[in-house]
Amino acid sequence: MSKVLGILGGGQLGLMMIMESRKLGVKFLVHDEDPEAPALGVADGKFVGDSWRELIDKSDVVTFEFEHVNLNAVNLAESFGKLRPGSLTIWLKQDKIREKSFLRDHGFPVPRFMIVNSPEEVDKAVNQLGRVVFKEPQGAYDGKGQYYVMGEGDLGKVPRRFPLLAEEFVDIYKEVSVVLVRSSDGDVLTYPVTENYHYNGILLYSIAPAEVDEEVAGRVKEIAVRLADTLNHVGVLTVEFFVTRSGEVLINEFAPRVHNSGHWTLIGAAVSQFENHVRAVLDLPLGSTELQRPSGIVNMLGVPYNEEVIRRVLAVPGTSVWWYGKAKVRPRRKMGHVNIVANNVDELRKRTNEVLSIVYGNDIGRYVSPWNLT
Amino acid sequence: MSKVLGILGGGQLGLMMIMESRKLGVKFLVHDEDPEAPALGVADGKFVGDSWRELIDKSDVVTFEFEHVNLNAVNLAESFGKLRPGSLTIWLKQDKIREKSFLRDHGFPVPRFMIVNSPEEVDKAVNQLGRVVFKEPQGAYDGKGQYYVMGEGDLGKVPRRFPLLAEEFVDIYKEVSVVLVRSSDGDVLTYPVTENYHYNGILLYSIAPAEVDEEVAGRVKEIAVRLADTLNHVGVLTVEFFVTRSGEVLINEFAPRVHNSGHWTLIGAAVSQFENHVRAVLDLPLGSTELQRPSGIVNMLGVPYNEEVIRRVLAVPGTSVWWYGKAKVRPRRKMGHVNIVANNVDELRKRTNEVLSIVYGNDIGRYVSPWNLT
């Protein structure tokens, strides 16, 4: 009989997991608090509110599409031996201080940081680290809960809620990520390194393969694999890096799941990150992560469904559109993305720019304003 | 608002159309007589029995996944101006004599044929054409309703139901097909030519790009495009060719729809035949049909769902599995297929052979026996 996979969380990541992997003969159950969550619409079984107990009961394996899910559900699934990956990464991801400390304590390269517990320590952090990013331990995500202190004048922006994570500001040459998949036997396959571009703290577009030195690409892959091994991870893991001009690489953060910067694999690899995650958690053999053609994505952030825009995007060679079908539009919200392929990275960048200007025109700030202005 | 596309027929072709194209923001309604048809399970609206009137009413555009669908539904959809492609090809495909005559009368290369109306004319056909394939005008499909007369001894096999199409037997070097997509404006994109291998009259596996002379590849593409123009076709059209040792190309038949020999495009092209069909019938720009990597498929015919087999198939590098989830297994029935990619055609053939031996072992006849023995 075919396997039943329960997914905690019904956002676009769960939606794409199902759309990419149902072909394997897997049945999908989805839980989300929000009855309008997009993945519920394509699930074989829908569970809302407190019904996650029933989902766990009916699933052979339980996974999550997002690390901020109901912890009671995570714990119950784990107590039945059904949770994949395990709860360690969820626990680490609940708190930025915990995550950064774990990485540092296990020998992974991270920006210098301090834990700040008082207004005096805010000043001390600035004295010691120079330019500082202060982050709220919980809820710093997609640009929220982060405060940049680039000079004295910015100090007033830092909230007086403690503790805060104070991290040295890294003068970034490039931001890249490694998406990998790891089996329960410890086999690991990495996708080609992806180059990421953010706008107001949120991913705007990605390009693969990243244009970095081969040596740098090899190093970030090696670190990502070592992290997956350290976490004894099963499934897809994404590690985001800062690359400095001098070629230093530092882990910014990791995500114990499929990731926006891996959406290009939907077209650019024979087996997408979504299918590979499902394969890994169900103990099926991992699939090819090789690049088929240079590939990228452009996020459609905060934009309503507009057939004319989609028509113009599809007219750019090598594109397709993934619209998530969310019930409501909000500024910065990930409403969909555009997949783009090309014969080389230059052509890919050109097409990416075309798509960006079709989706956002000259007024990207209208759709992707800073989180604190939305 | 997003478009609503009605699909007549709920088999695997409709299923893959939906799974590949929902991301465009399209809503899908499906009609099938059989309430267990696989595409119904993923439709936004399900219509069984006589409810096709309601489907047509609620759809912006109506298409079909298969040419043998309810003709009343086809006619009603067309009378409302909603049917794409038009009914001409359905009418031609209802009758092999009609199809072949249309092709010949419009100057397309086809094997020599005669229309046979009596036992005497059976003999006459054999005298004039030599080795002959007799085909029942209706219902000759996937090897059914075809009778090969290679010598006097085979004459008894030919049924005494008339008319029959008597077609010269072509000594085939290769069978290839061209899958193309045509917009209502007359824009046409062709996928790379595909090489097809049949077993007991049913497609067993395909390889793209076909290993034929470039000149031959160009010629079959040109003929296929000319046929699409002649039919004023909108959507995907597939044309199957015989290629002889001398390089002659003859149309075997065409299918006014997505086709089994184009399933490799699910991974091997940036935009699959399924997505391109949906784009074309909804007047969206056509997507890239370029080959990303050498790609093929192996059909899983008449085999039950077997997790161990799927596991072994997925362990072959470059593979994925598309299982259709049909309610019942029958010999010869298309239960699923395996997608395969590789870095070159030799590696692709090697992987294809591995997959064939995993799926069928040494006893393919058990699953793909001749239709008249099932």
Please give the structural blueprint.
The structure is a homodimer of 374-residue chains.
Chain A: E1 4-8, H1 12-21, E2 27-32, E3 45-48, H2 52-58, E4 61-64, H3 71-79, H4 88-93, H5 96-105, E5 113-116, H6 119-129, E6 132-135, E7 146-149, E8 164-168, E9 172-182, E10 188-190, E11 194-199, E12 202-208, H7 214-230, E13 235-244, E14 249-255, H8 265-268, H9 273-281, E15 295-301, H10 307-314, E16 319-323, E17 334-341, H11 345-360, H12 364-367
Parallel strand pairs in A: 1-2, 1-4, 2-3
Antiparallel strand pairs in A: 5-8, 6-7, 6-8, 9-10, 9-11, 9-13, 11-12, 12-15, 13-14, 15-17, 16-17
Helix pairs in contact in A: 1-9, 10-11
Description:
The structure is a homodimer. The first copy, chain A, is of the alpha+beta class and about 375 residues long. The first copy, chain A, folds into 3 domains: about 5-85, Rossmann fold, CATH 3.40.50.20; about 110-170, ATP-grasp fold, A domain (Dna Ligase, domain 1, 2-Layer Sandwich); about 170-374, D-amino Acid Aminotransferase, Chain A, domain 1 (2-Layer Sandwich). Helices cover about 30% and strands about 25% of the residues of chain A. In chain A, strands 9, 10, 11, 12, 13, 14, 15, 16 and 17 form a 9-stranded antiparallel sheet that branches. In chain A, strands 3-2-1-4 form a 4-stranded parallel sheet, covered by helices on one side. In chain A, strand 11 (about 195-200) and strand 12 (about 200-210) form a beta hairpin. The longest helix of chain A is centred in the middle third of the chain and has 17 residues, at about 215-230. Chain A is globular and about 60 Å long. The N and C termini of chain A lie far apart (about 50 Å). Chains A and B meet through helix 10, strand 16 and strand 17 of A and helix 10, strand 16 and strand 17 of B.
